[in-house]
Structure formats: structure tokens, C-alpha cells
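hiii so um. not sure if this is the right channel but i have a protein structure encoded as C-alpha cells and i wanna go backwards to a sequence. like what aa goes where. can anyone help
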């Protein structure tokens, strides 16, 4: 390894994270920094530890919940709808 950094195969990272290798391939297939080798039919991935840490942090960060102000519900009477149509 030129960078001195650990590179994971999808099977290794899946074992560590508790996911299938296919799930890991889906998560990292287009992630920047991942090494892709092979043909269009089969691509072998090598995932640097720093990229794995970045994706893990992104997946585990708490989602911000935006609460919308509730508007009072309007009661619409059928006779009022009919009157408006005439």
C-alpha cells in the first residue's frame, strides 16, 4: 500500500459493519476516494479506511427534524361547496 492506509474489500467492511458485501458495494460504488478496478461487468472495490470513516460518520449523524407549524383544520360543509359551484 502506497498510502500506508488500510484498504478494505467489501466483504471485510460488510463483516465489520454487519452488512452484506452487496450493500457495501452499493454504499461505496460511487464514493470519492474508493479504488475501482476491473471491467464493466465486474468491478473490484478497495475502500480506504478514511473513506469508510467518512461514510460511517455521514450515516450515523443525527438527522435534523424540521417541525412544521400546524395550521388549524378547516371544516368544509357540503352545502357550502354546492353554493360556491352555482
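sure thing!! here u go:
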Amino acid at each position: 500500500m502506497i498510502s500506508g492506509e488500510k484498504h478494505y474489500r467489501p466483504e471485510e467492511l460488510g463483516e465489520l459493519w454487519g452488512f452484506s458485501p452487496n450493500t457495501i458495494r452499493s454504499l461505496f460504488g460511487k464514493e470519492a476516494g474508493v479504488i475501482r478496478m476491473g471491467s464493466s461487468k465486474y468491478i473490484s472495490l478497495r475502500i480506504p479506511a478514511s473513506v469508510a470513516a467518512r461514510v460511517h460518520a455521514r450515516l450515523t449523524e443525527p438527522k435534523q427534524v424540521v417541525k412544521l407549524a400546524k395550521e388549524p383544520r378547516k371544516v368544509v360543509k357540503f352545502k357550502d361547496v354546492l353554493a360556491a359551484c352555482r
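oh and The beta strands are 7-8, 35-38, 43-48.
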